[in-house]
Amino acid sequence: FGHKKLRRSNIPYIVTCHGSDIHQLPVKSKSQIEYNLECLSLATHVIFVSNFLNNVAKQLGFNSENYSVINNGINIQKFKYNKKEAKQQFNVGYFGNLIPIKRVHLLPEIFYKVKQKIENIRFMICGGGSEFESIKNKISQLNIDVSFFSRFEHKELVEYLKLVDVIVMPSKCEGFPCIPLEARAMGVPTVGSNNGGLPESIGEFGRVIDDGPNMIEEFVEAIIDLLQNPVDADDLVENAKQQSWENIVKKEIDIYQKYAKKQ
Description:
Blueprint lengths: L1 H7 L5 E4 L2 H4 L6 H13 L2 E4 L2 H10 L6 E3 L20 E6 L11 H11 L3 E6 L5 H11 L3 E4 L7 H5 L4 E4 L9 H7 L4 E4 L4 H5 L4 E3 L5 H14 L4 H9 L3 H16 L3
Parallel strand pairs: 1-2, 2-3, 4-5, 4-7, 5-6, 7-8, 8-9
């Protein structure tokens, strides 16, 4: 129990919680939950990357007041927006792992229904995982024009984001995904599910869809609305700049310096 040794030695320690380390706790064993909560409760300070993660911890019993919510950031120098030229065709994309918790099995039907209403549109799916083959087969059955990039380097993400007009994220749970924030920095809005820290990452310029029997139809309507009535890209970019890593790191350094000075 390293955290206990640190406390006995009067050495401050700060914990940063990024996602599954917290939001997957409810399905863990009682002993694992107790261990993690003890680690958080004995910490000098805890940083959560989203309000969602903070709320999950509180629901499980975390009651310390020594915490902050500091979102993840982005490299503004890397995700640099350049005004797009007028295009003859819309592009909608998904970026992320193709695994069940991302609910990527919904993508083929969402794309199909969007295609039924907008003819001049293409789709791209960037990512790999256990659902790759099943999604590819379903896309083939529906005869939708989708470009697959099962493997790509993060540096290539900037080039792919230049191609799309809207990002789709139907995830079941997220801590604080960076993709919507990175997309926003490139002038691209996101339509995502109202789960976990996803709404916090999407921000005020995207669309958040509640789970329910009409979820797919609502995804389709939101995507079409953003394509036909686009948000001003400059507003998206300026908003994203507030969460540059430079700004985020300053907040974290302030916390570390605060407790270092007490030693």
